[in-house]
Amino acid sequence: MSETTVVKRINTLPEPLMQYVDSPEKQRQLYKRTMMTVIISQIFGGAGLAAGITVGALLAQDMLGTDSYAGVPSALFTLGSAGAALVVGRLSQRLGRRTGLAAGFLAGGVGAAGVVLAALMNSLVLLFISLLVYGAGSATNLQARYAGTDLALPTQRAKAISAAMLFTTFGAVAGPNLVNITGGVATSIGFPALSGPFMLAAAAYLLAGAVLLIFLRPDPLIVAKAMAEAQRVNEGLDSTKEARVQEAGIHKSGIIVGATVMVLTQIVMVAIMTMTPVHMKHHGHGLGEVGIVIGIHVAAMYLPSLITGILVDKYGRTLMSYASGVTLLLAGLLAAFAPGDSMIFLVLALALLGLGWNFGLISGTAAIIDATPPHVRAKTQGTVDVLIALAGASGGALSGMVVAQSSYSALSLAGGFLSLLLIPVVVWSRKKKA
Q1: What is the pTM of this model?
Q2: For a 10 Å CB count at each end of the chain, is N or C smaller?
Q3: For residue 395, what are the CA distances in angstroms to 71, 130, 299, 412?
Q4: CA neighbor of 352 nearest in space, from 415, 425, 422, 279
Q5: What is the mean pLDDT of the chain?
């Protein structure tokens, strides 16, 4: 490649980006600023996410009059999150994280508002449509974990993922524990009590989107792509060599194992979690107790993240994937054999369920990031999150049917043993590398 061509290609990069490309110090500053913006948005996003988890199944049970379809809300908003994950991923790849993530959170806020209106009107059609749109917030909440990794060093990636997830805890734990308060607010203005948490979700998602839209500048993914482009220019690659380097940078076995780990953990977690509020209601637990159990479960999903990130970076993606499978098995066994009227055992089972999911999500996400260069990263991440969302939709939809035809114990046992499939998948990936 001639010197003239190199100069021409460097000049195609916008001037505001060049200051980051040329300065490691500015890259570090932008990384820290990006993490702070993502963290603030995740606090709001977590509160929006918790509404559907806590009262979605109960709302459907009230409106449908049967337990058999109590898993439908979980299936719908996870199915909606599948479509949203694809759109958010493609938007992020093309226009940057700021545009993709802000659009996803804003759509989630609109969907939550639609659920509130559906509950007021007792309209199942509007409820189902709104839950699909509400799923965009869930997808975006997950994809926001990637934004902090775009400028992170390879040894910082899991910690960057975990920092974003850790601060989701504040909103996600507060949400379920505000069920009675938001329910009281809803009834005071003439709305059904179960619509209250979705009022909170609408406000939280809209705020999360606004934070990203205003403060996520310059966009971390666009800067990362500019840095990769500058590196290729400095190495003097022609178009043929560049294509080979880009293709070589995609590690397909890493993508497969990362996706499989996250898909299996999502199926198990969503299936057991979805039917726990219904199971508790059948054993005489009130809405406040349901909120406590789900709140602790969500805390276990996100709160250990900082420690998990350190462990994943230090001991590797493989070991923590094994830990995920074993922890989910213990959760399934405990949920299956715990007395239905025991808050202590239910809390412990759901805490282990959240912890196993945390191990799987962070180790799987880190594996995906390791396997993808910036020019395909967001698109690949969005596609993988589609699979995760579809897995959650399947787990949510089937969970109600399994419990209706057998029992909550059977569902929990099946989920626990399904999680053990993580181990042979990871072993296969290690053999492929060897």
Answers
A1: 0.76
A2: C
A3: 8, 20, 21, 12
A4: 415
A5: 84
